[in-house]
Give the backbone structure.
Amino acid sequence: MTKKTRRRYTAEFKAAAVARLDEPGETLSSVAQALGVAAAQVKRLEQQAAGSAEAVARWFSASYR
């Protein structure tokens, strides 16, 4: 039995995946299928991107008080 290696995605790949969700007519499933990943992975990337944006906004608002 061979050990599967984990796939690692670049920041550019992740950003492109999330950006494709904003394109007209694109769905979570269609983006996942086009990229060859599970829909849950694309959803997780979207949630992480939203969390990152919120963290940056909190940092900026806290540092300029």
